Amino acid sequence: MITDFGYVLLFIVTGALFVGIALFASKLIRPDRPNDTKLMTYECGEIPFGDARIQFNNRFYIIGLMFLIFEVEILLLFPWAVVFKDIGWFAFLVMFVFVFLIFIGFIYELGKGHLKWDIPAPLIPRYEENFGVIEDEDKEKGVVQSAKKL
């Protein structure tokens, strides 16, 4: 006699078996002829240039997190609005506090300037041989050769 957990284990084993059979069959059937085009970073017709490991600006992540927070807020507000008549004023007060805290966080982000797009890019120092670490701001002032030399 199989218990409830036994059915779950049987389901997992059966799923893993089907995945393994599909991967093995595709390895037997597929053509295996690697060439320079197939080994490129992008295979969509674009010729890659530069390093694939570029640094994204942190503002993209902050905007993404803000979007996620407001999406979760909508996910909580919609079911609350559907059953609002049945749950009463206490639920209204709780949701008011929740929306107020989200609003305070939004005002804080606006105050810090994290949602502005026209912030100048940060200066990233670079290394030049025989000089050491150079910041572009120093190069404009002409202090590169004397002060930062290693």
Can you tell me about this structure?
By secondary structure, the chain is mainly α. Helix content is 60%, strand content 4%. It has helices spanning 4-29, 58-82, 84-112, 136-141, 144-147, and strands at 126-128, 132-134. A two-stranded antiparallel ribbon has the order 1-2. Helix 2 (58-82) packs antiparallel against helix 3 (84-112). It is flat and about 65 Å long. It starts with a helix and ends with a helix. Residues 143-150 have low confidence and may be disordered.
What's this, in brief?
With about 150 residues, this protein is mainly alpha-helical. It has helices at about 5-30, 60-80, 85-110, 135-140, 145; strands spanning about 125-130, 130-135. The longest helix is centred in the middle third of the chain and has 29 residues, at about 85-110.
Enumerate the strands of the largest sheet in spatial order, edge to edge or round the barrel: 1-2
Q: Over all CA atoms, what is the radius of gyration?
A: 28 Å
Number of helices: 5
Structural class: mainly alpha
Query: What is the mean pLDDT?
Result: 81
Gap between N and C termini: 76 Å
The geometry reads as: flat
Question: Could you state the order of secondary-structure elements as H and E?
Answer: HHHEEHH
Could you estimate the helical fraction of the residues in percent?
Answer: 55-70%
Described by strand count, sense and barrel closure, the largest sheet is: 2 strands, antiparallel
Number of strands: 2
What amount of the residues lies in strands? under 5%
Parts with pLDDT < 50 across at least 5 consecutive residues? 143-150
